[in-house]
Structures are given as C-alpha cells and as structure tokens.
Design a protein that fits this description.
alpha/beta; Rossmann fold; five-stranded parallel beta sheet; 8 helices; 5 strands; about 50% helix; globular; AAA family ATPase; P-loop_NTPase; plasmid
Length: about 170
C-alpha cells in the first residue's frame, strides 16, 4: 500500500511522513521529490521549468520507483509529494492502480495565513519564494479537485504528530 501525503510546500508533509512511518507497521518513507532531483541533475538538455513534474518522464519514474521499491521491500510506502496538477495525479495514481497497488491519498491542509506564516518562519529552509509561489496554486487545486480526491487533514491548529496519528488511525481502521 501507498500512503500518499499531498499538500502544498510548507504544509508539513516531510515531518508528518516520518511520524506516520513510526505509527504504521512495516512502513518506509519514499520521498518522490528525490525522483525529481535525479532529473534536475541531468545536464544538459532538459527544458527549463519551475517544476520537475512538468517533465514527461517524471510521473512514470515516480510510478516505477514506487512499484519497484514496494516489490523489493513489501509493506507500506509513505510518500510525501505535492501534486497540484490533476492530470499528473491521475497519471500517477492510475499507474499505481494498474499495478494493483492500493493508495490512501491524504492532503495536509492549512489555511493560507497559516501556510504563509509557516513558510516565512521555517527554521530549516527559511523563507522561500519557491514555496510561497505554490500557496495560490494549492488553493486553486483544493477548490477545484484535490480535496475531492483525498482525505483532508486540516493541520491549521494541530501538530504534525496529531496529523500523523489521524492518518495512521484512518489507514489502520480500513
């Protein structure tokens, strides 16, 4: 099974995924952003973009990486990755489903003011123009499709540990 943690940059996916891993038996974190980092290291020749997900190979590589890791390790993969383009989510989730891999899709949500405050005051990354640039696209995706495709965990007033517990409880109860 894959437990996919979606949401915009700054929502707490990375922190929460590590906590979810501790709460689910035989779980491992696979940060699919690393697939994008591999592509970003390919030089020269890839077209300029602000998001590696726009490169055609990125989505099939995420699918294949997850499938191969699950085939090798078994258990549950906890995958933190922002996917705000509906067609990209359909391609990734559809590809995983074709391989018979069940997906539990969660969105870590926070209101815009909270997201902006978290990004501005991030102790590790500091304020990030890149992360700020995704606040509005996230809001648009949430309004138009994303919240209908996932279990939404509102993190505005809860800790990452509380969010992780909600996710683990949901996964273990089904």
């Amino acid at each position: 099974m894959i437990v996919w943690l979606n949401g915009t940059h700054g929502a707490g996916k990375t922190t929460t995924s590590a906590l979810v891993q501790q709460l689910l038996p035989d779980a491992r974190v696979l940060d699919a952003e690393k697939v994008g980092e591999v592509l970003m290291d390919v030089r020269p020749g890839l077209p300029a973009t602000d998001n590696f997900q726009h490169w055609e190979p990125s989505r099939p590589l995420v699918i294949e990486t997850a499938r191969r890791v699950l085939e090798f390790t078994g258990g549950t993969l906890v995958m933190p990755m922002t996917v705000l383009v509906e067609s990209y989510w359909r391609e990734i989730s559809g590809g995983l489903i074709e391989y018979g891999i069940p997906i539990r899709h969660f969105v870590l949500h926070a209101d815009q003011a909270t997201l902006r405050e978290r990004i501005q005051n991030d102790k590790v990354l500091g304020p990030s123009t890149f992360r700020f640039s995704y606040v509005e696209p996230y809001a648009e995706a949430a309004r138009t499709w994303l919240h209908n495709e996932a279990e939404v965990i509102d993190t505005t007033h809860i800790t990452a540990a509380e969010a992780a517990q909600q996710i683990a409880d949901s996964v273990l109860c089904r």
